[in-house]
Design brief:
Blueprint (H helix, E strand, L loop, with lengths): L10 H10 L3 E2 L3 E7 L10 E6 L7 H22 L6 E7 L8 H16 L1
Parallel strand pairs: 3-4
Antiparallel strand pairs: 1-2, 2-4
Length: 118
């Protein structure tokens, strides 16, 4: 799981990221990222995760997708061993993935995003 210091919280932070950057679209994820302007958070990249009711009306499914995305991010960041130059990142599902294969699909999207950043 991600550390508390790595999670983006608050409506103001989310809206700042969403307004100041353009999204990158992948198979099921839409990802916004912008440099962190705050001196306090310059050391760590912060992630915010959104799953709309349009993706699934059931909270159980939305929470499952959030947990899977957090696990994939944790693995990818641990594997890469880097800090992504202190960014604020918002990840959102814009399509409902097949729940049987959702972990693999999310993993593929995150790997593509990290390659795009390199």
């Amino acid at each position: 799981m991600l550390k508390k210091s790595q999670s983006l919280k608050g409506k103001r932070n989310f809206s700042c990221v969403l307004k100041s950057s353009r999204p990158a679209y992948f198979q099921v994820l839409k990802i916004w990222s912008c440099p962190s302007p705050s001196l306090k958070t310059q050391l760590k990249t912060q992630f915010g995760i959104m799953v709309s009711k349009k993706v699934s009306g059931k909270a159980v499914v939305r929470n499952r997708l959030k947990r899977q995305l957090k696990a994939v991010l944790h693995q990818a960041l641990k594997k890469e061993g880097r800090n992504l130059n202190a960014k604020k990142v918002v990840l959102s599902f814009y399509q409902t993935p097949d729940l049987e294969k959702s972990f693999e699909i999310i993993n593929k999207d995150i790997e593509q995003w990290l390659k795009k950043l390199s």
